[in-house]
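re: that chain from earlier
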Amino acid sequence: MSRRGALMLLALGLIWGLPYLLIKESVASFAPAGVVSGRTLGGALLLLPLAARAGALRPALRAWKWVLAFGLVEMAGPFMLLSHAEQTLPSGLTGLLVSTVPLVAAVIAFATGERGALHVSRVIGLLVGIAGVGLVVGTGGDGTVTAVAVAEVLATAVLYAIAPFIVARRLRGVPPLGSISLALAAVGLGYLPIALLTQDGSPTGRSIGALVTLAVLCTALAFVVFFNLIAEVGPVRATLITYINPVVAIAVGALVLDEHVSGGMLAGIPLILVGCWLAAGARVDAPVAAPVPDATLAECT
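^ sequence. v structure.
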């Protein structure tokens, strides 16, 4: 891997470890729908001119049905679920649970008939990852963790795992910048009326700052870096951000919000990461068949 690729990988891993903290800060005074609408509209306003300049909007408009489907699965559902869950769930725990996306992707690949999707190493990865999730959920709370919030985050992981299949099978050949820009705009406009109706009181300056950072840094800029990372190192190596994000999320949650980090969480982290590594295509014996479709894109939070 080139030095430029390694630097972009590290930068994106750090950037996409921050949204959980920023969402936690945003929902302190914004309604969940307001957080979703604010970050997506903000990201769209920054990316649409770039997409237009690159000639990426017209091809995306021709595939508008699947662009909309991608936006619903990748953004509308996950962003709302995460914003609602983080009203009670610690940000670090949220980031760690979302990192289970490769585990879900392996199951989806098998269910959709991909040959070799549940190779023996992937089965081992699923079992190890599930054990890690059990440790984290069982001991990772501070008394505010609820089953509903955990279910919302795990549902987010499922949606994030589905999104790459839409991209790979229905948006092949459509410029990603066009798809992302239009999807962000559609989701932001769709949630705007709900945001206006559900907002209670004026947001604080801290929440506004968190939401702006979420839109600019973790949505618009992160996608630009992501596209360049794919071009530099390829989609397979780009998945390495999966192993940086949750560590960053837990660290900043503990340092900035003083969130509790239990022994079970510390024990569960390596189990989840090893499980994801195996489930995403690593081999413990002879390799066979094709890998699970790249789940990196779906890890954008």
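The mean pLDDT is 84.
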